[in-house]
Amino acid sequence: MPTSDRSAVSRRRLLTGLGGGVAVSVAGCLGGDAGEEITPVSLDGERACDQCGMIIEDHPGPVGQIHFADDEPEGGRPGQFCSSTCTYTYLFDAEDEGRDPLATFLTDYSRVDYETFTEGDDTMFSSHVEREAFARITALTVVARSEVVGAMGPELIPFSDGDDVDAFVDEYGGEAMAAEDIERSTLEAL
């Protein structure tokens, strides 16, 4: 390749690289997803639900956590919840107050070896509070109106794997929906 052609290619590569770098930098300044680096925390011990006050580890079913940009619930920790319904209720109230949630996590029953048990007429799933048990709601599908209840009664049961959702619905009934599409009216319909 002649020298002039090589220098044109090098100059083009340099300008393309610089342009891409500037675009990435500007996107970051304009508020790219600031919550991407956030990871879940373990909710073990005597941690109380920020919505209802129940000790999270003592109750069955999915649990959740919400990480906020400012205004953490207490001492710089994320909001912590004993059920998916408490998680969503708190999330909706926080958004109504103008608070900025960066990341919301729920138990991902595709990631854990859960146990099913009954209490009276109720079918329940085990609770999992270790940080590895959580997934972002953007990666989850929840099943509403199934036979499985949680700490607060009727529950949204989250999964990241579509086959797990199908198997759960086949066994326990319910309606699958994207976790990030849940609205206040969904909770009220439970």
Automatic annotation (TrEMBL):
Pfam families: NosL
Ranges annotated as spanning the membrane: none
SUPFAM superfamilies attached to this UniProt entry: NosL/MerB-like
Gene3D superfamilies, sorted: 3.30.70.2050
InterPro entries associated with the record: N2O_reductase_NosL (IPR008719), TAT_signal (IPR006311)
PROSITE patterns (alphabetical): PROKAR_LIPOPROTEIN, TAT
Signal sequence coordinates: none
Name of the molecule in the record: NosL family protein
Organism this protein belongs to: Halorubrum aidingense JCM 13560
